[in-house]
Amino acid sequence: MRIRPWVSIIPIIIIMLVLSIGCTAETVSSTEVVMKITLPEPVYDSDTSIEEALLARRSVRNFSEEPITLQQLSQLLWVGQGITDPSGKRTAPSAGALYPLKLYVVVGNVEGLAAGIYEYEPETHALVKSADGDQRTSLAQVALGQASVEQGALDIVITAIYEITTIKYGERGIRYVHMEAGHAAQNICLEAVALELGAVTIGAFDDAGVQQVLGLPDNEVPLYIIPIGNPVN
Ligand SMILES: Cc1cc2nc3c(=O)[nH]c(=O)nc-3n(C[C@H](O)[C@H](O)[C@H](O)COP(=O)(O)O)c2cc1C
Questions:
Q1: pLDDT bucket at 51, cuts 50 / 70 / 90
Q2: Residue 68: is its pLDDT beyond 60?
Q3: Residue 57 CA, distance from chain mean position
Q4: Using one digit for the tens of pLDDT, what is the confidence trace for 1-21?
Q5: Among 2, 59, 168, 192, which residue has the fewest nearby CB atoms (within 10 Å)?
Q6: Which residues contact 48 (CB under 8 A, 6 or more apart)?
């Protein structure tokens, strides 16, 4: 029996299909590859007591050129929104355990991590890259030109999707989301002290401008920018 020529390419097509299905976890389209960076395990101990951290915390707005380490970044994100319980509960309290906050990192000067914008994924304690290149200057421009935003080794941006909380609590949910941003930000500020880093919580910025720099959808609102770096001695 004569085999038609096109039949011979069927096994090749099947192999290509199987290979492409295996890649979907990392490939969004043929041109857009999702980069996920697993962070080092956080260290759950410190030489600084909570009281010492509270006593020493001050807003720091001037930073040196010294980079911060990936381990330090891991600590800062974990204290902000890390998961601490098999049920999914986190380091910071959340009304109804609904978790409307997200943390982004605008990276400029972190050892072993390319400059860019990354989203923190609490479930995997990993960073997912969403933009390339150093975006600190663009972020500073939409934050009234505040130099600390550009000078910090990185900026953690806390954003929120209000609907996640208001769907259960109505208008009062907005208040809850703001309270939660305060919890997360204070955790980050105190951890910065324990790591001998400096930080400042920034609320003065143009919301739409920050949304544009971070590529956020309309329903995701920036609440805080926290520049962090080694303080100038
Ligand atoms: C909601 C809020 C918004 C703030 N916004 C800014 C800001 O836009 N720029 C800035 O440099 N500091 C900002 N700060 C920091 C305050 O200026 C600072 O906390 C205050 O001067 C007290 O100093 P301390 O943090 O050293 O105790 C903000 C603080 C809070 C709580």
A1: very high
A2: yes
A3: 22
A4: 455 555 555 555 544 444 433
A5: 2
A6: 56, 193, 194
Tell me the pLDDT tens digit for each residue of 105-142: 999 999 999 999 999 999 999 999 999 999 999 999 99
Residue 50 and residue 33: Cα distance in Å, rounded?
41
pLDDT at residue 29, rounded to an integer: 44
Pocket residue to mutate for ligand 1, from 57, 58, 59, most atoms within 8 A of Cβ: 59
d(CA 45, CA 140): 33
pLDDT at 205 over 60: yes
Q: Are 210 and 157 in contact (CB under 8 A)?
A: yes
- Ligand 1 atom 3: residue of nearest CA: 203
Residue 202 identity? I
Asked if the model's pLDDT at residue 26 lies above 60, the reply is no
User: In the β-sheet with 116-121, what is the strand arrangement from edge to edge?
Assistant: 36-38, 126-132, 116-121, 101-107, 154-160, 221-229, 198-199
User: Which residue's structure tokens are 């299905």?
Assistant: 21
Place of tokens 């930000």: 185
Instruction: Please identify, by atom number, the ligand 1 atom nearest to the C-alpha of residue 58.
Output: 26
206-211 contacts at long range (C-beta below 8 A, 24 or more positions apart): 206/142, 206/143, 206/144, 209/141, 209/142, 209/143, 210/139, 210/142, 210/143, 210/157
* Ligand 1 center–CA 50 separation, angstroms: 21
Greatest pairwise CA separation for the chain in angstroms: 88
Q: Is 212 helix (H, G, I), strand (E, B) or coil?
A: helix
Q: Which residue's C-alpha comes closest to atom 9 of ligand 1? A: 202
Q: What domains, with CATH codes, occur in the chain?
A: 33-229 (3.40.109.10)
